[in-house]
Specification:
The chain is α+β, with helices and mostly antiparallel strands and 483 residues long. The protein contains 16 helices and 19 strands. The chain folds into three domains: 10-67, no CATH class; 76-360, Alkaline Phosphatase, subunit A, CATH 3.40.720.10; 367-481, Nuclear Transport Factor 2, Chain: A (Roll). Helix 5 (69-83) packs parallel to helix 11 and helix 6 (101-110) runs parallel beside helix 15 (312-324). The protein starts with 16 loop residues before the first helix and ends with a strand. Pfam families: DUF229 (PF02995). This is (African queen) hypothetical protein.
Length: 483
Amino acid sequence: MSDHGIRFGKPRLQIESYYDNRMPFLFFWIPNEFRIRYPEKLKGLLINQFRLITPYDLFATLQEINNLANINLLINRDNIRGNYDNGIERQSMFKIVGYNTFPNMMALLTGKNMSTVYKTCSSGMDHCNDMIIWSDFKKAGYITATGEDNLRLPDTFSKYGYVSAPTDHYLRPLFLTGEDTIGNLVCTEKLSSVKHILDYAIDFVNSYSNQKSFGMFWTNSYSHNLNNIPSLIDQDLVSSFQKMYKSESLRNTFIFFLSDHGIRYGKSRIPYESYYEERLPMLFLRVPEEFRKKYVKEYMNMQINQKRMVTAYDLYLTFWNILENSTTSDIIDTCRSCLSIFNEISPHRTCADAGVHDKWCTCHKLNSINKSDSDVTRCIKLTEEYLQNVIKGIKTIDCNKCESLKIKSVLRTHTYNDEIRNNTFFVVAFTTTPGDVGYEAVILKHKNEFTVFPIETITAYNTRGSCVKNPNDRAFCVCKTSC
């Protein structure tokens, strides 16, 4: 675009120059990912080609684009894919099965539901390491490795921690030497922590290129917090893939490149699209050439499944498929109908078929509904009561209690239907007082019965909830001194 039209010179002596001066040019390019995923927004852009717009409109547009974080992430990842498109598949219907990192990663690595995981792992991760997939690979003669950066976060395996190394190679001791946050970067010694992760992964693959190996490497430091900028990692990722391709260590190696969930909190959670963005994390697969040539049918199924619903449970079965060349689903009791993605997945698959709870399901179109609708009004009232009951059960340190929260403002209300089971679902996003904490609730209506599913926060980590004994309660507590 230009900043303005012609402001001086001979053309300014013409009558038309009055308009030329006030009408600069503007062109923009729309990525295919945006065209496919947001047809209504595309329609608006096309219509507005012939409407009056100003720099203020462009500023608002840029803010909204920034809110569509998964689009930006996919465009950035397509930069990598463009360099190495051979054998790389994108699963566009990969869905979460739980709220945050821990349930989604444990579904991926154990195939178990969270009640089983919490029961088995409550006294420490060492007690449940045998049910994690890398232990099965190790028993089969594979060399194993794992690593996770940004150890300050209460995520993944920091939740209960390991006393002994869970795999043959374990990266945690490096980060225990000291991670420092510099601006929005997390660094260990002279390199960013994510660079350590990538370098370690490359060394691991290259070192065991002629042996069977399984590695799980996880990075939080470039995308977990609101001030992180995922695009900063692009060049490091491209360089890492370049090194692996040049060494030919990927000739017999699968790569699963994924995130655990979309953006869960912050301003990005206010638009209604964020309902989908949170529930549709990214998943790219790199399939080795040897596999593509030897297992043509399985590879064709993988390509078909790019547009089919896939969950972490399916990936867990895929790991087993790679390990044992078996397609059985008997090893997973959480989702009996889940499948390895080497099998063709039905286009009519439901969330129930895939082990996805109604709360996290995205197989429907959200429809706006007026906040004053009688059902919505009832949902808001029931949600407030649900939240207050949660707060009553929170245990705090001495001389503190949690404020009783009330709904301050309703940000958005939407509804969708499950006609097969005659269910109606309502999605309500709202802020509360005191504390101005935001939440999103999903409420099920079956006949005339309403059920409020567990409420999730959509604002940044609550800094006012430090008085709780259980860190999981922090999101629902605004502390108040009581003595």
